[in-house]
Structure prediction request, 121 residues.
Amino acid sequence: MLSQEFMVLYFLTLFFQRTLFMHRFKCPSCQAESISIKDKFRLGWWLTTRCGQCEARVAAFPWTLMLLFFLHTWNVIWWFGLYHFEGGGQYLLYMGIGWVLIELINLFFMPLCSLRRKTES
Ligand SMILES: [Zn+2]
Prediction:
């Protein structure tokens, strides 16, 4: 029983190491897979990062970022509202699950764009 759970945990850890933390995202400027999952995560919070290959400044696409920001706001207001008016801790749990799901959408479906100065030669 215990070893079964251990095996599941072991494979989950392997899965996350292989697919999530080792995953690299393509730079929109030079197409090299140079953006780490940590940098991609930062982009979801309106921050920019720099491509290690071509030095381009990379940001998330602003319109989808706005949509994601709206989803975050809606998620918190909806579940926290239910928690406040209906009571029951499960709504806070749903809010946490929703938050994680939105972050996963942010990581894997957020298009990127490179920021370039117009005067750059
Ligand atoms: Zn690049």
Summary: Residues 26-115 form one domain. The two ends are 64 Å apart (CA to CA).
